[in-house]
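[#protein-structures] MJ: dropping Glycosyl transferase family 25 domain-containing protein here for a structure pass
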Amino acid sequence: MYRGDGPDGKAEGDGRREPFGHRRACRDRPFARNDPCPDDRAGRCRSRQRDWQGFCLPRDVGCVACGRQHRRDGEGCMTLYIGLINLDRSAERLAGVSHHLAAAGLSADRIAAVDGETLTPEQLAKYNRRSAGRLYRRLLDRGEIGCYLSHIEALTRFLATDATHALILEDDAAFGPEFGALVVRLGEVLAVRGDWDVVNLGNRTRRSYSRSVWIGGNGCGHELCHAHHFPSLTTALFWSRSGAMAFLGCALPLVAPLDLRLKEWCIRTDRGLAFTVAPVRSVGNESCIDGLASRHGCRGERLPGYFIVKQKRHALNWLNSLSHRLQHIFHKGRQALWVEDWRKEALQIEAGKIVQSRQKGWP
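AK: finished. structure tokens for Glycosyl transferase family 25 domain-containing protein:
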């Protein structure tokens, strides 16, 4: 009988240690720092005994897609929703990204982007001009409002389906034919991990990050990292269902551009991932949503005090990302010390069993 948790939250059982193989697997498992140990069946992890948040999953975990039990060190299955944001008048862009999708073996649900030139009063009411000026000392133009609302519509459509993950693309995205296999592999790896909300596929992580796992697909590979300082750009975003729900819960009212709002949200929660080399690139042309909106007056007009507020915001983001990075290093080092301590205990226990068996005359 392995030790488990009693109804009052305290340990019960015969006091046996968890198997050493499980401890070593916990040490090597990525994306586990923020997860509480969910293994209530066999109590294979000592995390609760040491007030240790995570580093452990049960040997078999339930897949969020099918409910079946998958190996902890393997991957789960997923159902993917692919949304493509495209303006009705941007037929050339639609043809270009459709060509890339077909080459990668993917098909997308086209989402008509919100046109910044034809915003309705109801759509403009979602923008809080006063709060934007007070918090960021910068006003949004109509194109940025349309881009933000387009992504909200894409996430709303995703949550209306039964899909477990979503890939939201903008019509200026470009990628190779191996991208389809990479997305499938990424979803399988992340299906059994719960400490992430969104993966930025369109911009690489440059600053504060922790290397996590290698994602390979169809002859190529990319290193996925825990991006403590989440990169900007929203060309290609890979969402979890819980992450999309959490972001929609705080997305309104509009007070900042989407990439800035998403970046600060991920830095604060420390649940954003990114690659060291971005698998998706932008074609480099000015977006129709943003470009045509600049005709309507001040494009991102800056108010007095903008530079000071911007530097304060950058400093706060740096402090938050550095704090998460140091926590990751501290937990990793503490985990290594505990694993070494458990290894010594296991050797001592095994040596004691051998001595007892010899004293009793057992072979």
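MJ: nice. The chain is about 40% helix and 15% strand.
AK: one more thing. Residues 4-76+339-359 form one domain.
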